[in-house]
Amino acid sequence: MVATLDTKGHETAYLARVIEQWGRETLTIDVGTSNRRGRSEPDGNDARVAAPAELLRQIAASAREEVKELLRSGAIDAVVGIAGGKGSAVFGEVVSDLPYGFPKLLVSSARPALLAELALHNDIILYPTLVDLFGINAFTERVLCNAGRAIAAMRYVPARERRERKTVAITAFGVTTPAANRCVDRLAEAGIDAIVFPANGAGGRKMEQLVSAGEFDAVLDLTTTELADEIVGGTASAGPDRLKAASHRLIPQLIAPGAVDMVNFGPASSVPAEFTGRQFYSHTPFTTLMRTTVSENERIGRLTAERLSQAKAPALVLWPAKGVSDYDRDGGIFRNPEADRAWFDAVRRHLPRSISARELDCHINDPEFAEAAASWIVEQLTPGGSSRADV
Hints:
Pfam families: UPF0261, UPF0261_C. It comes from Bradyrhizobium agreste. 39% of the residues lie in helices and 17% in strands. It is α/β, with parallel strands linked by helices. A six-stranded parallel sheet has the order 9-8-10-11-15-16, sandwiched between helices. It has a five-stranded parallel sheet with strand order 2-1-5-6-7, with helices on both faces. Helix 1 (5-21) crosses helix 5, helix 6 packs across helix 12 and helix 10 (294-308) runs parallel beside helix 11 (337-350). The longest helix is centred in the first third of the chain and has 21 residues, at 52-72. It is globular and about 65 Å long.
């Protein structure tokens, strides 16, 4: 249990009793700030209490190391946090190094925006209390009972150190789903497992983290739309580490421009005023898409090439000449061959000669595109298969 005992002591004790009633033992790590001091002594004995933000970082770092050591020793197989706003931010840091799939449950009264931010970075199970945590009452009792029973039923089962089958990471979006489905099927026929990540910002960030952790044998990066959001300023950016992990891990990767024709925003009212007059499409009442321009696609293509240029393992760029999303096809609302071509031309200009870029005369969701992409990945992962990047 990770809790701010200075403000959530009663709730923590109650939650511990619930968990123990269901046959689990508990160990509590206090991440509260009371009675803690961070000191800096630049001038002899002139000690100063650390600033609140600095103190929180110190507490989080210390607790993170303690939790990691408990995991290494086999002492824990689940973690639950109980906190308000600051404590929730600390909890996110504390569990940041725990493996994907390790049960992480946070009972929190923090504002929804903070909880949404935590969900972008980790597979935390979030339990918003909706009422503030001020002791045990008829409302908080229900929340804590449910949370206690839930975490008591969760146990971490470590992944096998050696997988029996090769595993490939794939990126997908709603507008590239047909291609992703065909790639998954084609890989399955070859005895290769595929794990699909939504290219919505959080999905791409998590994929990069898991690739860095050695979870995958190859990456089929079908949908690189998150780079469009990074360049233009949309809501689905995966951050500056996108399109880097496979190169660092020296595993094969295939890159395609899935959905780089669009930038993501929330409801129409949330679109920044600077984009007034641009081409938009209301994908859902909560998602507004903006068509990328020629110049934006050139910048996205250049960024793609710059990041891919670090690859030392086999790598291939595959470009569909007839469109990069369901909205970017003949008669589609985002069809713009000139903008699409700007991406591909920029990639070719800035890629090193060791990495090939191929054009296919089809749409990204046509069966032949998925066949070409998946077949290249299969070739790289098949014993005795070609290691050339231009296959």
